[in-house]
From TrEMBL:
GO terms for biological process: developmental process. Transmembrane segments: none annotated. Gene3D superfamilies: Helix-loop-helix DNA-binding domain. GO terms for molecular function: DNA-binding transcription factor activity, RNA polymerase II-specific; protein dimerization activity; RNA polymerase II transcription regulatory region sequence-specific DNA binding. Residues 111-163 form the BHLH domain. CDD domains: bHLH_TS_ceHLH13_like. This is BHLH domain-containing protein. The keyword Transcription applies. PROSITE patterns: BHLH (PS50888). Keywords: DNA-binding, Nucleus, Transcription, Transcription regulation.
DNA sequence: TAGGCCATCTGGTCCT
DNA sequence: AGGACCAGATGGCCTA
């Protein structure tokens, strides 16, 4: 378990290490989402990762449209309609396109199903980009490994709950948290912290 | 090797 | 009717 150092000083914002800040290239994500369904425009590689600062933290997490296509079992049954996306040798690609065109004309259901698959992938990518954005707004450490989706949600819930408590208390954030640590968490809101490994995290907090 | 996490496919349901 | 949303199933990757 990694050490966690929450600091609620006035300049606490600078003490939190976030997964990154939204950079000026934020709009790239929406453009990417648009491109995901614009099959005819696609020939190269794409990353489903947002272009937030977080992306640079995990450069290995790249996925190409070719990957997506090749992973699709539908490819084998010829239901593809976006084979133009596949980066492959010219002749093979041509044959495949013709073959698929034949098959798709006879399998309207498969065409529909594949279109639905593409929409679903796009939807999941947008959800994932939202998770990336959320990761950028919860306090973590540079050396801490990437939060899973469920941990991101839990940490966000806990973080919001703590911020709300601090606001409602009207106390100095640092002294409020100090008090919480001294007295332990007893109220209902604080129970949220026990829903995950956040309790363990808190036991490692150093407040100076 | 088991378990966690994730992406993807799929069929069902709901909504516009 | 078509798209969005959802949950279950499946398989891959990674780590302890």
């Amino acid at each position: 378990m990694e050490d966690i150092f929450f600091d609620f000083d006035q300049d606490a914002a600078t003490d939190f290490a976030f997964w990154g800040q939204i950079d000026p290239n934020f709009q790239f994500q929406s453009q990417l989402d648009t491109l995901l369904l614009d099959c005819s425009a696609m020939t190269g590689q794409l990353s489903p990762w947002s272009s937030f600062g977080c992306q640079t933290v995990f450069p290995e997490a790249q996925l190409t449209f070719t990957d997506l296509d090749s992973q699709s079992p539908q490819l084998e049954v010829g239901a593809e309609v976006d084979s133009s996306l596949v980066d492959e040798p010219h002749e093979i690609g041509k044959c495949r396109q013709q073959h698929q065109r034949r098959l798709t004309s006879h399998h309207p259901y498969k065409v529909q199903r594949h279109a639905a698959n593409i929409r679903e992938r796009k939807r999941m990518l947008s959800i994932n980009s939202a998770f990336e954005e959320l990761r950028c707004h919860v306090p973590t450490f540079p050396y801490e490994k990437r939060l899973s989706k469920i941990d991101t949600l839990r940490l966000a819930i806990a973080y919001i709950a703590l911020l709300r408590e601090i606001l409602m208390s009207g106390c100095d954030p640092k002294s409020y948290v100090d008090e919480c640590m001294k007295n332990g968490y007893k109220n209902q809101t604080n129970a949220i912290w026990n829903t995950s490994d956040l309790t363990a995290r808190l036991s490692w907090i150093k407040w100076d």
